[in-house]
Design brief:
The protein is an all-alpha fold. It has eight helices and two strands; from the N terminus they run H-H-E-H-H-E-H-H-H-H.
């Protein structure tokens, strides 16, 4: 029997559509234990940020919104969000039996762009490397490389976006924060050459 005849007799792939719906619902699940662990990790990481910020040396001018204030604000925000997520997960823990629950996602990942924990952790590791090299290499060196790597990991392959966006973002933010707002931004090995050229006071 041809496909056209089957369609005319039984409708336009009704069984196939039902199977796809069942498959989609089955795949859209998550482990609520992992979800809870992520929420707790967010709380702990926020507390860690607040603790590290409390160890920053205070200068003569009281620092509220820059080196010490921003980690405080970010850490407190993470703690609040983590507590809210933890309360939501614990309050709904017994609604469904077992450890697997329906995911909060509304559909599967886009074809060719699947969600990946490897991609997320690669960016986190790059962020730590960026912070580690920040003092020695400087903002103008580490930031464009970090942004380039993040865009590449996220699947961007346009060289205009990979090159121009990191460069423009780095130069623009450096100009705003270092030149206009007078923040002390590490320049690493570029500090002396830029000072000789008159770009750094």
């Amino acid at each position: 029997m041809t496909d056209a005849a089957m369609t005319a007799k039984g409708g336009p792939n009704e069984s196939t559509g039902q199977e796809e719906k069942k498959k989609m619902i089955f795949n859209l699940t998550m482990d609520k234990r992992v979800d809870l662990a992520v929420s707790v990790f967010i709380i702990l990481y926020g507390a860690f940020m607040v603790y590290k910020a409390s160890q920053f040396l205070q200068g003569r001018v009281e620092d509220i919104f820059t080196a010490k204030g921003m980690p405080y604000a970010a850490g407190i925000l993470l703690i609040i969000c983590g507590i809210i997520l933890t309360i939501i997960r614990l309050s709904t823990w017994s609604e469904l039996p077992g450890n697997m629950v329906v995911s909060e996602a509304t559909k599967e990942d886009d074809e060719g762009h699947p969600a990946s924990w490897k991609r997320a952790w690669a960016i986190i590791v790059l962020a730590w490397i960026d912070v580690w090299l920040y003092q020695s290499c400087g903002y103008l060196v580490t930031t464009p490389i970090f942004l380039f790597a993040c865009l590449w990991i996220m699947g961007v392959r346009s060289w205009k976006k990979l090159v121009f966006f990191p460069l423009i973002f780095t130069l623009a933010t450096y100009y705003v924060f270092a030149q206009i707002m007078k923040f002390l931004i590490p320049l690493g090995f570029l500090e002396n050459p830029l000072r000789e050229l008159g770009f750094v006071l």
